[in-house]
Amino acid sequence: MSLRINDTAPDFTAETTEGTINFHKWIGDGWAILFSHPKDFTPVCTTELGYMAGLQPEFAKRNTKIIGLSVDPVTNHGKWAADIEETQGHKVNYPMIGDTELKVAKLYEMLPADAGSTSEGRTAATNATVRTVFVIGPDKKIKLMLIYPMSTGRNFDEVLRVLDSLQLTARLKVATPVNWKNGDDIIIPPAVSDEEAHKMFPDGWKTLKPYLRVAPQPK
Fold this sequence. Notes:
This protein is of the alpha+beta class. The chain is 31% helix and 21% strand. It has helices at 23-27, 43-61, 74-88, 103-107, 156-171, 194-200; strands spanning 13-16, 19-22, 31-37, 64-70, 96-98, 132-136, 142-147, 186-188, 206-209, 212-215. A 5-stranded mixed β-sheet has the order 5-4-3-6-7. The longest helix is centred in the first third of the chain and has 19 residues, at 43-61. The N and C termini lie far apart (40 Å).
């Protein structure tokens, strides 16, 4: 069975650049973003890790921790972090998991069970599927999965945008429309009756269709 949204994120204990962690305990009562990489010293991932380091304060404002994973030793991660800072202008300020036995990659179904038990001798190409972003909620359930090919850099501004939506819709009975950004109008879901909606939006809303009601984002 593949992982799906609302599945419990598999727990694990692993070595990171900031010491040994138990994943669920590390998340605590906040949100987390786990994003994976096929190998250290790869060009696209270098730009991604640097950009995430620059965004880290924005995630922190949203009570969200970020953690990277690469199927290489933690000792390599440290050397790679120096390259990332030099070329991208941001120091890696979050932990990076070492997954030399491929345990986490398999646990999160980014590699098949028969992929072996060591990262030694493996290339970025053989690890190409280790390119997933997982957003995990305080309940330790998977809220979002984004999978990218190695040739395409990920859009972490989009991850931040989606996180805003996930946190808003976890707090209130609302949904967000296409291309929504924090502060834009929201959608009142069909499951919310007009009576309930009046309590939530005393100033009213705009009905475009019986199933499509639009209102200002609640404060």
